[in-house]
Amino acid sequence: MKEYLAELIRAAPAPERGRNVAREYLQANILGSLQRAGAMIPLVFHGGTALRFLYAIPRYSEDLDFALERARSQYDFRAYLRAIRSEFTRQGYAVELKVSDRKVVHSAFVRFPVPLRPNTIGARWCAIGCRRWRGTR
After folding, report:
1. Cβ neighbours for 97, distance < 8 A, ≥ 6 positions apart
2. Sheet containing 122-132: which strands, arranged edge to edge?
3. Is the pTM of this model over 0.90?
4. CA 73, 79, 82 angle in degrees (round to 5)?
5. DSSP string spanning 71-123?
6. Which of 14, 23, 82, 87 has its CA 20 to 30 A from that of 93?
C-alpha cells in the first residue's frame, strides 16, 4: 500500500493534488477497515467527505463523520480504531491514535507518515468523528 500511495502522489500533476490524492486514498482505506470491522451496521457515514466520495463534489475534507443510528449495543468505537490500527500496521505504517470518547461526540485522530512529495515523509492526520444522537438506544 505504501509504495502504491507514493506512486499516486508522484503521478499527481501538482503538490496540492498529490496531498488530496493521499488524503482520499487513506480515507478510503480507513472506510474499508471500518466496513470490515462491522462499523457500518450501527453508523451512518455523512458530512463533507461522504458528499465528496458519493457525489464527487469539488470539496476536499480532512475528516470522516458518522452518526450512530442503531442500538448503542452494536457500537464499539475502540474496536473500530483497533481494526484501523491493525490494518495499517500490517501494511507497514506506524499508526498513532488520539482518542476522545468520554463525551457525546466520540472522535479520534489517526496519524501516520505518508510521502507528501517525492523523497519526503510528512505526518498526516485523518479525523474520525461519531456523534451519538440523543434517543439512540
Report:
1. 81, 84, 85, 108, 109, 110, 111
2. 43-46, 63-68, 122-132, 105-114, 96-100
3. no
4. 175
5. -GGG--HHHHHHHHHHHHHHTT---EEEEE-SSSEEEEEEEEEE-SSTT--EE
6. 14
* pLDDT 10s digits, 49-81: 999 999 999 888 888 889 888 878 889 999 999
Asked if residue 54 belongs to a domain, the reply is: yes
Alpha carbons 61 and 54: distance in angstroms, whole number? 13
Looking at the structure of the chain, the number of domains it has is 1
CB environment 74-99: b (16+ within 10 A), e (fewer): ebebeebbebbbebbeeeebebeeee
Residue 18 lies in a domain: yes
Quick check: 132 pLDDT over 80? no
How far are the Cα atoms of 30, 41, 74, 76, 114 from residue 122, in angstroms, in the given order? 18, 33, 36, 30, 6
CATH of the domain at 46: 3.10.450.620
Rg of the Cα atoms in the chain: 15
